[in-house]
Design goal:
Shape: flat
Radius of gyration: 43 Å
Number of helices: 3
Mean pLDDT: 85
Number of strands: 43
Distance between the termini: 98 Å
Low-confidence stretches: 1-50, 553-584
Strand content: 35-45%
Largest sheet: 6 strands, antiparallel
């Protein structure tokens, strides 16, 4: 093995570099056999930087191996004219100026910030090599006296000067942000919050304007106070048109009143809660009557919804329920819950409900509980439900009679558990809405819409719907009902609603002999039996059956061998149903 140190091949490189320079190449590559190249530019003058790279990187190389030496030649340039010169005076700090130095020169280039008054020059400010685009003057700015500023750039190939700018440093000020921001509510007005802060010290000789932003505690976007409302020096401000009993977050910044200079940084955030107001809406109100009767009395369960925060306008302390029997005395109940069960006679009752917070009571919800012999009529028409945008929508045509409100009830249908309803109330003008509950996919919902009139509820109408359908969890179990010479009657049970996971639209029966082709027959979902005909006598058939929902499809079959099933957006189950057609 023969090895060379890099310094021993210096002369070879000089020759190669000089040859490349003659042709003014910007990239030079040379592959040399069994030697090292040490790249140097000591013989080329001042136009190029030293350069060089050898691959693979190693101080020694085996004789007879290959390596590559690359040299990128960079032309040195005079400085360009500095552009976009601008200065800023951060409060309580010296003035700092910035500029665009232009292209890279590949030479040591000095940038000098110069400044002067009409009658006096100031000390130069030389930019640091690692920040050639800025410099901070080492003297305090003098306000209300114009100063002239420019930049000189210089290297071995030349020098150039930027345009001069002339300004009063007071017009380049960036104040410190206001501090000690505080927020106070008002018991007199629930829609306002009062802000107060301490201005920066520069306010003593500089008039300010402000930018105030606010948001609710959980919001991510800020609202802005109109600029014209905060365009003069102040240390307080009242924010109006806020929501009652709502927490708001505020921040503030300031700048010179005439808009010259720079905005301060934002202050630290401060928050406050508006005062409570009387509830702005009455609660949703409904009832359920227990079908059992005892000695002329009937148990009636009154139920209502808690008001959302933007309607409660404060903490709800209690509810007041009043029950008045037709042309008789009334009963009052104060309740801390959202339900009340009472025993009422078979007469007609008027029930009212109000919600109370610290400030006052809501308007009353009024409900007519009809007499025992009342017969409900006038249902909604054309009721339908459909999923859209991950919500379950309900639509209907209103009755011709005047409706006070609608009650929507829904529950999950199940063969294993009772239908426990949730409900919501809609205004009498509504005919399209979505269910505002925590709905689950692949569950069948029974949805009921009841119009409510002045004299009591109308007839309810119901519809079934899915938020999102899926494949059935299980296929139908098929049995042989009757076997004949050339036919066989198959029967099966409807799938339980818990495993349907959607509307069953059809069944597919697939049958074949041991070595024959499989035949498929589609059967309407309303049927629970089917006759296979034209069978070959004394022949063994294998039969399978699949159930399809709206999401069904043979193209998405998955097989669970351990369960002897085939499952997809439709559910197949291999059944051990062997049809032995009888021989004559």
């Amino acid at each position: 093995m023969c090895v060379f140190e890099r310094k021993n091949i210096k002369n070879n490189v000089n020759y190669l570099l000089q040859e490349s320079l003659y042709k003014m190449l910007t990239l030079w590559t040379r592959v040399v056999q069994a030697a090292f190249i040490f790249l140097t530019t000591e013989s080329i003058g001042v136009l190029l930087d030293p350069c060089g790279h050898i691959s693979p990187e190693s101080p020694v190389v085996q004789l007879g191996s290959n390596f590559t030496a690359v040299c990128v030649l960079k032309e040195k340039l005079p400085p360009e004219k500095p552009k976009n010169l601008n200065c800023i005076v951060n409060e309580e700090k010296n003035m700092m100026c910035q500029w665009d130095p232009g292209r890279k020169t590949y030479l040591e280039t000095n940038y000098t910030l110069k400044s002067e008054w009409a009658t006096e020059k100031f000390a130069d400010c030389k930019a640091q090599r690692d920040t050639p685009n800025s410099c901070t003057l080492d003297y305090s700015p003098v306000y209300f006296v114009n100063i002239e500023v420019w930049v000189e750039a210089e290297n071995a190939l030349g020098n150039i000067t930027s345009d001069h700018i002339n300004f009063d440093p007071i017009d380049k000020v960036k104040p410190n942000p206001p501090h000690n921001l505080s927020v106070r509510s008002s018991e007199e007005l629930s829609s306002i919050l009062k802000l107060a802060w301490i201005n920066p010290s520069i306010k003593s000789f500089l008039r300010l304007k402000y930018s105030i932003q606010y948001r609710t505690k959980d919001a991510s976007t800020w609202s802005q106070i109109p600029p014209e409302d905060t365009s003069s020096t102040r240390s307080s401000f009242t924010v109006q048109d806020l929501k009652p009993f709502t927490e708001y977050v505020f921040r503030i910044r300031c700048m010179k009143e005439d808009g010259k200079g720079f905005w301060s940084d934002w202050s630290e955030e401060a928050s406050g809660i508006t005062y409570e107001a009387r509830p702005s809406k009455e609660p949703s109100f409904w009832y359920k009557i227990d079908p059992s009767h005892t000695h002329g009395y009937r148990p009636v369960k009154l139920i209502w919804k808690t008001l959302p925060p933007f309607e409660a306008n404060g903490k709800i302390l209690d509810y007041e329920v009043t029950l008045t029997r037709w042309k008789s005395h009334f009963q009052n109940y104060r309740v801390n819950d959202t339900k009340l069960t009472v025993n009422l006679t078979n007469d007609r009752y008027i029930a009212t409900l109000t919600a109370r917070n610290l400030v006052g009571r809501s308007d009353a919800s009024v409900l007519t509980i009809p007499a025992c012999d009342f017969r409900a009529v006038h249902p909604v028409m054309d009721l339908k439900a459909f999923p859209k945008d991950n919500k379950l929508w309900v639509e209907w045509t209103a009755p011709t009679e005047s409706v006070n409100k609608y009650i929507l009830e829904w529950c999950v249908l199940s063969d294993k558990s009772p239908c426990i309803p949730d409900w919501q109330q809609e205004d009498g003008t509504v005919h399209l809405t979505y269910l505002r509950g925590n709905l689950m996919e692949s569950k069948c919902y029974l949805i009921t819409v009841t119009p409510v009139y002045a004299d009591g509820p109308g007839s309810p109408e119901s519809v079934r719907a899915y938020l999102k359908q899926a494949a059935p969890s299980k296929g139908p179990t098929v049995r042989t009902k009757k076997v004949g010479k050339n036919e066989a009657v198959l029967e099966w049970d409807q799938l339980p609603v818990d495993v349907q996971n959607g509307f069953i639209r059809n069944y597919t029966i697939l049958y074949k002999t041991a070595f024959g082709n499989e035949t498929a027959v589609n059967v309407d979902s309303s049927h629970t039996e089917y006759t296979l005909s034209s069978l070959t006598s004394d022949t063994l058939y294998m039969v399978r059956m699949a159930a399809y929902t709206d999401e069904g499809g043979m193209q998405l079959v998955s097989i669970h061998l351990e369960q002897q099933k085939k499952e997809s957006q439709e559910q197949e189950e291999d059944i051990e149903c062997v049809v032995n057609c009888l021989h004559e």
